[in-house]
Design brief:
GO terms for molecular function: nickel cation binding; zinc ion binding. The chain has one domain (about 1-15, about 25-110): hypothetical protein PF0899 fold (2-Layer Sandwich), CATH 3.30.2320. About 25% of the residues lie in helices and about 30% in strands. The chain has 2 helices and 6 strands. It has helices spanning about 1-20, 40-50, and strands at about 25-35, 60-65, 70-75, 80, 100, 105-110. The protein has a 3-stranded mixed sheet with strand order 2-1-6, covered by helices on one side. Helix 2 (about 40-50) links the parallel strand 1 (about 25-35) and strand 2 (about 60-65). The longest helix has 17 residues, at about 1-20. It starts with a helix and ends in a 5-residue tail after the last strand.
Length: about 120
């Protein structure tokens, strides 16, 4: 299950960049392209399992955004959405494997808890 290693990498990254402030994180948003083979429900399950073993993360939430596959047509010089894994320009019919979006996986947002004053 590669989702658990992805979640571990997310927490390693948070700890590396936010040190002691990790406990103050309310929500982590992850963006995954359709070609990254990330299943949001499996990532959520792995996240839930991870925070069960780490009580100081108990209140942290995860949101997974999924990006469509976008390719670029060199003939039309336009980007198009890949549907049904057909990497063919909708306008001119030219095949294209020039992926612009869809294979990414990254932390796109970190939201911290509001401090009471």
């Amino acid at each position: 299950m590669h989702e658990l290693s992805i979640v571990k990498d997310i927490f390693d990254t948070l700890e590396e960049h936010y040190d002691a402030k990790v406990e103050d994180i309310q929500q982590v948003q992850v963006t995954a392209g359709l070609l990254s083979n990330v299943q949001p429900v499996l990532i959520q399950n792995a996240f839930d399992a991870f925070i069960t073993d780490h009580p100081y993360y108990q209140e942290m939430e995860l949101e997974v955004l999924v990006n469509d596959i976008i390719a670029h047509c060199s003939q039309c010089n336009k980007d198009f959405q890949v549907r049904y894994h057909k990497f063919v320009c909708e306008d001119c019919g030219t095949p294209s494997a020039n992926i612009v979006q869809g294979n990414e996986l990254f932390i796109s947002k970190v939201i911290f808890k509001q401090k009471d004053h």
